Amino acid sequence: MKLYNKSELMPLLESFGFNFSKSLGQNFLIDKNILDKIINNSNINKNTNVLEIGPGAGTLTYELCKCAKKVVSVEIDNALIPILEHNLSKFSNFTLINNDIMKIDLKKLIEDNFGSEKFIVAANLPYYITTPIIMNIFEGSFNVESMILMIQKEVADRIYADPGTKDYGALTVGVGFYASPEIICQAPPHCFTPQPKISSVVIKLNVYENSPYHVNNKEMFFKTVKSVFSQRRKTLVNSLSGSPFINCDKRDIEKALSNMGLDIKIRGEKLDIEQLAALSNYLFKN
């Protein structure tokens, strides 16, 4: 079965009376080269557990099941369930869960299916849930080895941005704190059906065993980051001292910046992750 072949995929979908949903951001991959790059860069073998988010018609799922120990796919669209059951029926290592990844008890799902074993995340993520899904997985402190994601190019640009650029923000810092990002390949609109209006990127997030950035208080670190980028046009001193998320005295912030050798009029978007961690540690000792 070649689900990546549009001439085979479309008649199959039609036989089930399936209609693509714009609200769910459904665009199915139909490019074998990109599919191969995802599999080859995932480092999947017979000892690998995979949590797949949004399997669609099962194009990637089919290839994952051929390589992995176990594949657990979470699909929100009821209309895709019989199609997935049909397409993946030959695999005994496949588990399908019809649920919303944003509402499901992720901790229970992972414990029930993988126990304490490591797993990787594979997903083709619609724009509107990309950031919350990535950060929910990171912040859950799960035993994730890596994430290989198909995301909009705009989101990939934000993940890969340098300090001081327009794309640099809370997502850049959040991902960089937990993982080392790696671009696998570009995915132009013609690689999907129906064709989206934007280009996508396959990105791999190699999750750190331990973050290289030491913070005294992770909660306050991320509140500091949120404060910095929610008012990014202000100076760092003003964005932090006026933040609704943290309670900081302007003089303490100025002293911290001076001790770090930074101009007290600097904007927060100029600080890299290490500097933001150092600033948070100075302001919040524990």
Structure at a glance:
With 286 residues, the protein is α/β, with parallel strands linked by helices. It has twelve helices and nine strands.
Structure description:
With 286 residues, the protein is an alpha/beta fold. The protein has 2 domains: 202 residues, Rossmann fold (3-Layer(aba) Sandwich); 66 residues, Orthogonal Bundle (Helicase, Ruva Protein, domain 3). The protein has a 7-stranded mixed β-sheet, sandwiched between helices. The protein has a two-stranded antiparallel ribbon with strand order 1-8. The longest helix has 13 residues.
- Strand percentage lies at 15-25%
Briefly note the structural class of the backbone.
alpha/beta
Rg computed from alpha carbons, rounded to a whole number of angstroms: 21 Å
Q: Strands of the largest sheet, in order across it?
A: 4-3-2-5-6-9-7
Distance between the termini: 56 Å
Quote the average pLDDT. 94
CATH architectural label of the largest domain: 3-Layer(aba) Sandwich
Low-confidence stretches: none
> What is the number of independent domains?
2
Task: Spell out the helices and strands N to C.
Answer: HEHEHEHEHEHEHHEEEHHHH
Apparent shape: elongated
The CATH topology of the largest domain: Rossmann fold
